[in-house]
Design a protein that fits this description.
There is one protein chain. The protein is mainly alpha-helical. Helix content is 57%, strand content 3%. It has one domain. A two-stranded antiparallel sheet has the order 1-2. Helix 2 packs antiparallel against helix 5 and helix 3 runs parallel beside helix 8. The protein is globular, with a radius of gyration of 23 Å. The C terminus is likely disordered.
Length: 323
Amino acid sequence: MAGMQYIKILLLILIIGLAGCSDPLDDQIIQQTAISEQRVETLGQALTNGGVRNATLINQYAEKVLQLKPELSPLINEFKKDATVKGPMYLALIDRLNTIKTQPNMFASKQAIYDELLNIYQAADPTLYSDALSDPLNVLADMSDGQLPRINSLAKNQSAQINNAQDFGTGEQLIGNPNYGQWSTGSNGMSFWAWYGMYSMIGDVFGSRRTSYNDWSRGRNYSYYNDYGRKRYSSPSQLSKQTSVENRTRKTFESRGQKFTSAYSKNRTGSSSLSSQSRTAQTSANKFKSTSKAKSSYSKSSSKNASFRNSSSSTSRGFSRGK
């Protein structure tokens, strides 16, 4: 009996010791996973029930542009998905959550997982998400040839003048956003923007020239994604790819003795009437350095195999204006 009691005491000591050695970050990850999942689900309900302002406007803008240019219905219907749970931005949030749950080894550390969960939680805030939808919404505005005003953004000519930006054509707000396309490498070794699927109509219909990464990084105009939402609405894998494209282009230009300007060296001016959440989140996102640098946030070996797809008017917060 004494021997059995001794064994029980040893087991209790061992259990207490193991509990004391557990990583508190494990519990935080479990809790934050549930919280972030719930936030994404709530966002989906808000989209379905018409509770996201710019999603509602996307539907209204799409119907107006469809009347003006019915021949663009395939592209317009693709943009209408942004107002639903079938949109690329929302599906990307689902993909990122699934990666955390099923492929945690894709991340370099537990802290990187936790940071990603916090970014997803912020990205799924309905107000922030509405701000992020201003990019596809304003592409529809530009497609209307001045019939519809831009939302949460200065008019194109105003922001272009302020930023000394080049004109990359209709749809330029979405260049650099991995939910709509990707940077591909040409035969000359330089990167250019390639649209996904139906979005290729943007270049085909509106005659936008093939946009090189160097031209865009030096002369891009304002967009919500690139100036406010990039770290929230990109997976670590996507951020890693963006860093790789920039570093490769920089090295190429430096080898030629030419100057290279980073697309993200400074924020472009052009936002208007953005939520206070967007401005606050921009500051807090900068604290997550691990999610902005591929080597610190994402496993090198894993990132190689990871694949995630996943006008002339002044600014207005309303839908209609004088015709």
